[in-house]
Design goal:
Elements (H helix, E strand, L loop, with lengths): L4 H12 L9 H23 L10 H21 L4 H13 L10
The chain binds magnesium ion.
The site of magnesium ion (MG) has 4 residues, from α2 and α3.
């Protein structure tokens, strides 16, 4: 089943609200997001970079790390009462307007 980003935000919040402190403090969440971003970079480096690949490091690991990164982004958005769906719409608006001629077209 495909989920919308707002459904994903609700899923994460439903899980988080079980706990006394649903979300880490804002700066801890940024640190966690940065850690997860580094884990994505680590897998990509093993897959495509010069760093020697470790045994068992596969594309599944990349999927898992991207999911971890998405989770941290959703936590930050939820804690800050941000709708990622609305933020995404504003991003698309910029891409199709302000940045419309920024890249060479096919
Ligand atoms: Mg991770």
């Amino acid at each position: 089943m495909e989920k919308t980003i707002s459904q994903m935000q609700k899923d994460v919040d439903n899980w988080a609200q079980q706990f006394e402190k649903p979300y880490f403090s804002p700066l801890s969440m940024v640190a966690t997001m940065t850690e997860e971003c580094g884990e994505v970079a680590r897998v990509m480096n093993y897959l495509y970079g010069d760093k020697k690949k470790k045994d068992g490091e596969t594309l599944k690991d990349l999927e898992d790390e991207l999911a971890d990164l998405l989770f941290t982004i959703i936590c930050i958005a939820n804690d800050q009462n941000i709708s990622l769906s609305e933020a995404h719409e504003r991003k698309l608006e910029k891409l199709y307007n302000r940045d419309n001629n920024r890249y060479k077209r096919k």
